[in-house]
Amino acid sequence: MNTIEDPTATDVKHFPEGFLWGGAIAANQAEGAWNVDGKGMSVADVASYRPHLDIKDYVSQWHVGPEDIEKAMATDDVTYYPKRRGIDFYHRYREDIAMLAEMGFKSFRLSIAWTRIFPNGIEEEPNEAGLAYYENVFRCLREHGIEPLVTLSHYEMPLYLVNHYDGWTSREVIGMFVRFAKVCFERYRDLVTYWLTFNEIDSVFRHAFTTVGVVEEKYADKHEAEQAIYQALHHQFVASSLVTKLARRINPDFRIGCMVTKTLNYPETCNPEDVYLAQRENRTNMFYTDVQVLGEYPRHVLNYWRRNDIHVRFEPGDEEILKAYTVDFITFSYYMSMVQSVHAEQREKVGGNLVTGVRNPYLETSDWGWQIDPEGLKIGMIDLYDRYHKPVWVVESGIGAYDTVNEDGSIDDDYRIDYFRRHFKAVAEAIDEGVECMGYLTWACIDIISASTSQMSKRYGFIYVDEDDLGNGTLERRRKKSFDWYRRVIETNGESLYEE
């Protein structure tokens, strides 16, 4: 009997050679220096710390209205606008990168703040100080043997474009973003290989202001606001494809990826209605990768628009652009799974990052109400790879927790070690199932300002930063217990996970 051997099959014990271990941050949460060296004001500079709100009230924490914008523009405060101060990565990046190198990082994800290069987004010429800063950062990473993964837009669009163009609802913003990307591609063509266009492009309905610059109160009703958000999303899809086209012309060695939030939904029971609800949510989550990987809108979205009288303007050639310039790989964030039920109103709820569902009794829950599900990471990776047959890359995953500094200055964060041990093993199992995974970048490898709550006390890192929610502290960096643990994981390419 003849057997057919799979020429692509590999004897993967745990993680493949060249697996890109590392971590990730965003400029708006780490850099600080919000008005230094010509930088303009971004949507992140409007985000405020609201200690009076429940930390699990994600809708209120993320929401920004016209009065919030006006108030933020009238002040230089950095205490209650903590993303303006970050952790001073802008001035301390050499120290921080050296610590990442000490852990053995193979890759580091970071973003370019659009407003450092084009302060208002409309300028014809870029800001040289901003360009030079990122060149120095990328060179520093290369000196330490760390591969940068660069996000062009990570919740940092110029505030000017929100106030004068209604954000991404304006077709003109596409050209401004392409100009920004072109400058970056040309300046860093020999320093950066891996690029992402938009961070969590699916977040448009979770926080429209932060993602696409849409201020929902400006619209007559929810239907009009929803249509505006879809229009803005379409413009981002087109911009992403145009930027992908441009990148390949400037440097054929560039690799361009998309980035989405992987939200996995389970049915509460085997009731077909529960199964359908979960399927519907998972399908919606896949919509954003369908457009960027397959190059077309799924029919269920077009049908939804038709049923709900939503009219998204397509310019001639848009569909051809989306089809012709799809991404090379898929990156995603993963923090939790959710449960859907026809009896949801009678069930206890949990949430995270504005995603809400029924509590799963089989899972633990973090202090911020996020359910911890490493098995869901494996399931999500398999789903993505089976659907698209493209390499996947975990570029955001971690646990926000309260850390306690001991009298001797040490931080025993065994909960973080346990979290990553289980999630890393889940990735290894997905790889053994045949998933082509490029790497795992933990969020956030050094403590930074929280995206959702603007807290500092919600800590993710292997490196502790001495700063509290009001900005008090020395900004001293300290290695947590997890620092040495992760260094050993990277050093052994994951083998140490199975030695413990």
Automatic annotation (TrEMBL):
Look up keyword DNA repair and say if it applies: no
- In the UniProt record, the signal sequence range is none
Please name the Pfam families in this protein's record. Answer: Glyco_hydro_1
Record key words, sorted: Glycosidase, Hydrolase
InterPro entries, per database record: GH, GH_1_N_CS, Glyco_hydro_1
Can you tell me where the transmembrane regions are?
none
For this protein, the record's PROSITE patterns field holds: GLYCOSYL_HYDROL_F1_2
Instruction: Say which family it is in.
Output: Belongs to the glycosyl hydrolase 1 family.
The name on file for this protein is Family 1 glycosylhydrolase
